[in-house]
Amino acid sequence: MLNIGRPRRDRGFTLIEMMVALALGLVVMTAVLALVLSIIRSNRQTLQATRLNQELRATLAVVASDMRRARGVGDPLTTALAVGGNPFGAMSANGNCIMYAYDGAVDGPWHIVRLDNNGRITLQGSVNRPASCTPAGTPTQIGSNQVQITDLTFTPTTTSSTPPLATDENVVRQFDVTITGHLVDDDANVANVNRTMSQTVFVRSVGTGI
């Protein structure tokens, strides 16, 4: 005997259940997206900080390498016996500028390394000893345009010798070079990160102090 009754309905999701499920899905997707963006931002900041360290280290290495040549002469024996001694003996440091000389220096023998008003470290040669840190001529930039240098200092260490003459001066044997800068970037979180690096540069002791 057939049992004919009400037709059975296939039950599905109600509109409210679908809306709740959709809302929960959106919340989960938003949280995952925010996490992914945070990871990407953090990775970029880490990479940029590493890049800044490398740029500052490379710039500092170039400056230190050139400074180590200061007071160098082609013929030390002849220079030692010459009247007046080493013509490249004097070195002068003033805040963010240093002047020195050595035999064979490009556009030299005098070199001026300084921080300009645009946040760039420059090197400039001069035939004669400059009267100031801003002689006439076109300097050469050291470092990348992507890095803004905010501070550059040259701190000399002088050693008091026992001068045979009262007119002898102290001898500068080393300089502490300190550089501070940050990346040029549209992201404030990257541009606001500053790094400072220092390096001690030992120079030839055949020369006078500042």
From the structure above, extract its key features.
210 residues, single chain, five-stranded antiparallel beta sheet, 8 strands
What do you see in this structure?
- The protein is an alpha+beta fold and 210 residues long.
- The chain has one domain (48-202).
- The chain is 30% helix and 27% strand.
- It has three helices and eight strands.
Low-confidence stretches: 162-168
Calculate the terminal CA-CA distance, rounded to whole Å: 120 Å
Lateral arrangement of strands in the main beta sheet: 1-2-3-4-5
Number of extended strands: 8
- Which class of secondary structure composition applies to the elements? alpha+beta
The chain-level mean pLDDT equals 83
Please count the helical segments: 3
Beta-strand content estimate? 25-35%
List the helices and strands and how they pair.
Blueprint: H1 15-67, H2 76-81, E1 92-94, E2 97-101, E3 110-115, E4 121-126, E5 140-142, E6 147-159, E7 171-183, H3 188-191, E8 195-202
Antiparallel strand pairs: 1-2, 2-3, 3-4, 4-5, 6-7, 7-8
In brief, what are we looking at here?
This protein has helices spanning 15-67, 76-81, 188-191, and strands at 92-94, 97-101, 110-115, 121-126, 140-142, 147-159, 171-183, 195-202. The protein has one domain (48-202).
